[in-house]
Design brief:
Helix content: 25-40%
Shape: globular
Structural class: alpha+beta
Low-confidence stretches: 1-14, 424-433
Strand order of the largest sheet: 3-2-1-4-6-5
Oligomer: single chain
CATH topology of the largest domain: Rossmann fold
CATH class of the largest domain: Alpha Beta
Distance between the termini: 12 Å
Strand content: 15-25%
CATH superfamily of the largest domain: HUPs
Largest sheet: 6 strands, mixed
Length: 433
Amino acid sequence: MTGLPGERNFSLFTGRTTVSREGFQAVMDWLGPWLPDTPDAPPVALAVSGGGDSIALAWLAASWRKRLIAFVVDHGLRPEFADEAASALKTLSELGIPAELLRVRTLPHGPALARRARDARYEVLIEACRRVGAVDLLVAHQADDQVETVAMRKKRGSGVGLSGMAWVSERADIRIVRPLLDYSREALRNTLRQAGLVWCDDPSNENERAERVRVRKQLGSTEKQRLLRQAEIAADERVAQEQAVVDELVKTQCLMSWGWAALGEALPSVDVLAALIRCIGGGDYLPSRAAVEKLREKKIPGTLGGVRLLRGKAGDDRREQWLLIRETAAMEPLVPAGRNLSWDRRFVLRYSGENMPSGLMMGAAGFGLSRKERAGLPAALTATLPALWKEGQLLCVPHLGLGDQKLLAEMSFDFAPASPVTATFLWMNAYLT
């Protein structure tokens, strides 16, 4: 997604040193439409760390609309963050923005701490957005972040990834919006100084053991401008590529909403197949093009990215065709069920009743359903459908209409994968055409 027509990257290219509320309003109008700004409407959520970028986002957003909620996430990595969070919550209160402190209970073990912390942060943010009914989450990535991202991806030869971060993307069923991508870090801090607001700088932002910090300190103004122009070109290429994927999906009508896809007699293009594998597998990233090409060229059943490619009967006419289904061995095991909680990074449990029965677990339906119960679908496919269990007994499989009818009337599983088939085009198509 490229910048505003005639105004892209203005804080870096034209030397503007502050951000006006009127300019921010124009950006938000461009990124809309938005839900009504009324007391009974769901709020727009803000991710606030207490740093200069997110405090600036909060100050600007407070003049844009009233129906907001801010979330401050504590990873538990730095003891001093407690004071920073308290400062952020105080500032948010002064701005008239309701706020909550969220805590990451545990971080997955392993290398790449920054990536694991980011993933955990988004997990708690998305859960909080679902709880309050927010469908939009504003985050404070800005132009310097964009430049650094492009520089790091360029070093790795990331292809269309050189387009950097999108203005609008999706994680599961939440829209991630980055309205500050046209503003420099310094312009945002100048704005805060002008407004008389304080912020807290994370000391890790000066730790040169982190690649991003090293890149930040190496980039000059000319190189930043060149990388931003390169990002704009790459973004246009990404839009064109995702448009082609959407066009092919519409033409073939191969995507299903139950977490699997019927592909027809012929396999789709490599780009479409890769996008479907990421979506159905609940992944954040596309599988390697070489691996997808190899799978496609073999034209035999196989697995890739937590997804199985096989032949089976599906569709209204139950004809034999290629199917993409979740790989059973890769699925998440049984987890406690709860309203708006996700399972397998692909399904969200919706419950309309007042009190959900206790002791319910979410998991795969598994094998053992009769052909009649499976509605003629392959057992390998129905085994991957989301279901509710209790004390080791299968209670219901909503997609098949099986089980306790009262429970089925009050609950459902929405397919909300970690990444949609195209990460940005579904929203961009609605707002830019």
